[in-house]
Amino acid sequence: MQKKILTYLQLPPGAEPPKLDHLSPFLAIVLAEEEVDELWQAEICRWLVAAGCRYVLAWGKDCEAWHDMVEDAALEAFDYEDVPDEHKLIATWHEDEEREEVFWFAKHRAAHPSHSFKATVILDIASVGRKDEIEQEYSAA
Question: Most Cβ neighbours (<10 Å): which of 4, 43, 54, 60?
Answer without folding.
Answer: 54
